[in-house]
Structures are given as C-alpha cells and as structure tokens.
Amino acid sequence: MSQEDNNSTPTAPPAEPPVSAQPALPAGTHPPAFGEARPILRQCVAICSTLAVTDRLSSALVMCGGVAWTLCMSNLTVSLIRAHVPRRLRRLVPLTIIGCHVTLVDAACRAFLPQVRENLGIYVGLIVTNCVIMGRIESFALSNAPWRAFRDGLSNALGYCLVVAALGCFREVLAFGTLLDRPLPVLEAWPEPCIIMAAPPGAFVALALAFWLSRFKFKQPPRANRETKR
User: Fold this and answer.
1) 83: Cβ–Cβ under 8 A, 6 or more apart, which residues?
2) What CA–CA distance (Å, rounded) separates 179 from 159?
3) pLDDT in tens, 26-56
4) Could you tell me the pTM of the whole model?
5) C-alpha to C-alpha distance for 10 and 7, rounded to whole angstroms
6) Contact, 228 vs 185, CB < 8 A?
7) What span, in angstroms and rounded, lies between the C-alpha atoms of 97 and 75?
8) Per-residue pLDDT tens for 109-168?
9) Which of 31, 144, 5 is closest to 79 using CA atoms?
10) DSSP strand pairing (182-183 vs 178-179)
C-alpha cells in the first residue's frame, strides 16, 4: 500500500466538548440572594401563567409549587450531568429534564388536588415553556456547581411565587370576596363584587399595579451613584 493510500484513510472527527466547557461566569458571581430575584417584575418573563392562573389564590399556589419544584430540581439535575451533555444537545436535554419534572407535578395534582388541577387545565403542562426555568438553566445551571444551581433556582422560584401568590390573593378578594374559596367576614357588607378582576382585563390591571409598585419600591439609584458604589 502506498504512502498516499495511508494518508487517505478517514479519521474520526474530534470529540465534541461538553457543555460544561463553555466559559464560566466571572469569579465572584453568586446566585441572587433570597428576595432579590424578581423574574416577573424585573425581566418581564412568565407573564402568560401569571395572568392566567391568578384569578384564585388556590390555583396560584398550586402553580407556584409546580414552578418552584420544576425550577429547583431541573437546575440541580442539569448541573449534575452538565459535564456529560454534548454541546449540540444543550437545549434538548434540559427540555427533557424539565418535562420529566412537570410530569411528576401533573401526576401529583391529579392524585391529590383534582379540582384545582381541573381549574388550571393546560397551564400545568405549560410549565415546560416557562421562560424562567429555561432561562436559569441556560444562564446559570449549565456552568455552575449543583448546590449553587439549586440555590439559584430556589431564589428565582421564591421571587416568582411571591408575585403570583400576591396577585392571586388580590384578585380573589376583590372579585369574589373570598380567600382560598372561604368567605371573608369583613367583606359581608361588600356591595357588589368586582367581577372584572376575575376576567382577563382584571389580570392586566393587577399586573400593571404590581409593576408600578415594584418600580416605586425598588427604584434603582442614578447611574452615577451606582458607579460610585463600585
């Protein structure tokens, strides 16, 4: 066999680097502290579920539990296996993991909270498409250790849950005069319930008030002051 034939022998393509080989976050980067992460009000994500499930507090709390479980466990699972995930599968594998955790949430709701599960309808399954979950996996869990990824998921889940639960409480009290489907004695003299708060326009009004309060309470200092603090 000639030298040219030896040179023409096909060679295997180089191994694809794992996802964990992507550039890590800068040194000193930590998950947001509890209470600082507000994905709905600061990043304007997960708006669809926020508008759809906050007509009653019971539905809002179940959605909060489902999103919190999925976000924390998906972050942890992805971080544990990130060194074995090829770069070309960096989105397919996390989506599969998210779908598995959402399936567990859906099964638990059907077994223990069938009425609330019926009220939520398709929105339990749509947790898979929640922007908060995929965003935190992509930006943090794929390049950080498991404990830090879990803590990041828990912090963002708390920020999501606080907003959704507050909107659910606000809308149910105004629309039905109840809280967790129980009448409130202080509202017995309520002349007429504000039914619009149970409708989609009421959801937009409540969310707009939440955005306004967030901008008013957590107003950032001027840029010059921020640079001085650095």
Assistant:
1) 18, 19, 20
2) 22
3) 444 556 655 566 788 888 888 888 898 999 9
4) 0.78
5) 8
6) no
7) 9
8) 999 999 999 988 889 999 998 889 999 999 899 999 999 999 999 999 999 999 999 999
9) 144
10) antiparallel
For the chain, the average pLDDT equals: 81
Contact 90, 19 (CB under 8 A): yes
Residue 167 to residue 112: CA distance in whole angstroms:
24
- How far is the C-alpha of 191 from the C-alpha of 123, rounded, in Å? 33
Residue the block writes with tokens 């650095």:
230
Structure tokens at 40: 């709905």
Tell me the sheet residues that pair with 18. 86
Q: How far apart are alpha carbons 51 and 49 in whole angstroms?
A: 5
Cβ-proximal residues to 6 (8 Å cutoff; 6+ apart), any chain: none
Q: How far apart are CA 175 and CA 171, in angstroms?
A: 6
Question: What's the CA gap between 130 and 128, in Å, rounded?
Answer: 6
